């Protein structure tokens, strides 16, 4: 719907119009990747394989101009011709998107990990993003460093599992001693380089590697989330912020009373 009639209005796009297109695109992308609402537009759309709307509009305009040019000369474009032009325009889109990602305003860690593999990421035929996998890829999740930035959520950025001074997504993936058993299983599949760019490359290499990384994130992040819930429920956690009991939480509490 957002791109309806794109060949007509694409040349009239200005900064204000681009912002209007980007706003709902970010909301949709965050839903697609199952990410936190604080994830930037750049990181969310990149993970969702959803290029900027203005670039998508230009692809549609190029295909339309090709078809209208042939019709104006009395020819009828074949399906193969249109498909070839669409493929070339799509390749140009990926190239331009990659250039735009050279200096991202936000989400630089995610961009640096995926940008070298952008074409493979967009065209992959396996792998879905889960809530916990997205936390590791975006650094927005159940990490002490992230939660410490939110008032009354965590009193320290330290890792509650191993005592490291900073609990970040990188620490969780590469270093945390509490995750060593799960990490050994991951390394057995994808190798010893656990930098985010290397992990993304391995994930794109095979469905087995993608599943191994997803399993690691699911297991480790689930343990971190459980530990956080326990800290919030403990008597000494009065300074931590509790979530408001919304309608779904109240309904869940009624259906599943504490034993």
Compute the number of strand runs: 0
- Spans of 5+ residues with little confidence (pLDDT < 50)? none
Number of helices: 14
Terminal residue distance: 49 Å
What structural category arises from helix and sheet content?
mainly alpha
Summarize the structure.
The chain is an all-alpha fold and 259 residues long.
How does this model look, in words?
With 259 residues, the chain is mainly α. It has helices at 6-9, 15-33, 41-47, 53-72, 79-100, 108-114, 118-123, 131-138, 144-148, 169-174, 180-190, 196-205, 207-233, 247-255. It contains 14 helices and no strands. Helix 11 packs antiparallel against helix 13. The longest helix has 27 residues, at 207-233. The radius of gyration is 22 Å and the shape is elongated.
Q: Which helices and strands appear, and what pairs or packs with what?
A:
Blueprint: H1 6-9, H2 15-33, H3 41-47, H4 53-72, H5 79-100, H6 108-114, H7 118-123, H8 131-138, H9 144-148, H10 169-174, H11 180-190, H12 196-205, H13 207-233, H14 247-255
């Amino acid at each position: 719907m957002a791109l309806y009639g794109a060949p007509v209005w694409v040349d009239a796009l200005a900064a204000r119009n681009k912002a209007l297109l980007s706003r709902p695109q970010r909301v949709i992308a965050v839903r697609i990747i199952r990410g936190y609402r604080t994830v930037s537009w750049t990181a969310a759309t990149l993970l969702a394989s959803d290029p900027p709307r203005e670039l998508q509009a230009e692809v549609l305009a190029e295909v339309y101009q090709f078809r209208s040019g042939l019709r104006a000369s009395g020819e009828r474009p074949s399906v193969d011709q249109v498909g070839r032009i669409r493929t070339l325009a799509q390749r140009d889109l990926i190239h331009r998107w990659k250039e735009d990602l050279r200096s991202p305003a936000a989400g630089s860690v995610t961009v640096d990990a995926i940008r070298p593999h952008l074409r493979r990421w967009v065209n992959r035929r396996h792998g879905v993003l889960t809530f916990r996998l997205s936390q590791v890829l975006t650094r927005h999740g159940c990490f002490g460093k992230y939660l410490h930035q939110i008032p009354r959520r965590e009193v320290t950025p330290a890792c509650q599992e191993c005592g490291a001074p900073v609990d970040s997504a990188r620490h969780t993936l590469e270093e945390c001693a509490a995750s060593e058993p799960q990490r050994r299983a991951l390394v057995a599949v994808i190798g010893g380089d656990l930098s985010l760019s290397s992990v993304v490359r391995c994930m794109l290499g095979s469905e087995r590697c993608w599943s191994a990384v997803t399993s690691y994130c699911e297991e480790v992040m689930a343990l971190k989330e459980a530990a956080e819930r326990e800290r919030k429920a403990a008597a000494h956690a009065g300074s931590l912020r509790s979530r408001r009991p919304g309608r779904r939480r109240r309904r869940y509490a009624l259906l599943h009373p504490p034993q």
